[in-house]
């Protein structure tokens, strides 16, 4: 695949932002089928540590997120947002959704960033084991291995990890209880938000020939690695597209 920004797949048909996706058995079967028919790309790199993230699919209600549960001004901590953005994840819920976490600002690594529940694999763990454990530890949601629908492609990060995304069917709304030392708030973001007309976005940086991917959600932009995972969630799970995302670049702030 070409590494020039203009060569990456752009938006398909224009999708209306307001059409929520029904959370039902048909969606579960469709996503499981797309994952089962995908030849997953794996990354083996002994110089990187292995991590996993939980892509948890849940139900949500439109309008339940009109008040941001996090103290956004404190979370942003004076950082310029640009593009008229204010960092708030509002008006994104409705229908089938995924959990998105706002990380605590005092963490040593990747503080105050958007993330999916996840972390490093412990000794002897599989990616599925780690994703389910981290989901329980960070978000307070315990789910069995039978809830796993499949795996997305591995994504190698600039900060020294290979991330395996594990797609999990929550079976309803669930009741997240975020661990305050790690997660400020957990949001239900409707899957239809991934199909916004202005998504995905690709920008160039001088430090890399690869395009940086941006996924607009609410009043913010989600960058890789989380942005790359969410883009494949759209392309593969919702649309049945097998386009790779592992060559999409991260912004400089995520290289550390």
TrEMBL record:
InterPro entries: CoAse (IPR045121), Nudix_hydrolase (IPR020476), NUDIX_hydrolase-like_dom_sf (IPR015797), NUDIX_hydrolase_CS (IPR020084), NUDIX_hydrolase_dom (IPR000086). Belongs to the Nudix hydrolase family. It comes from Mycolicibacterium anyangense. Pfam families: NUDIX. Its cofactor is Mn(2+); Mg(2+). GO terms for molecular function: coenzyme A diphosphatase activity; metal ion binding. This is Coenzyme A pyrophosphatase. PROSITE patterns: NUDIX, NUDIX_BOX. Residues 48-213 form the Nudix hydrolase domain. Coiled coil: none annotated. Keywords: Hydrolase, Magnesium, Manganese, Metal-binding.
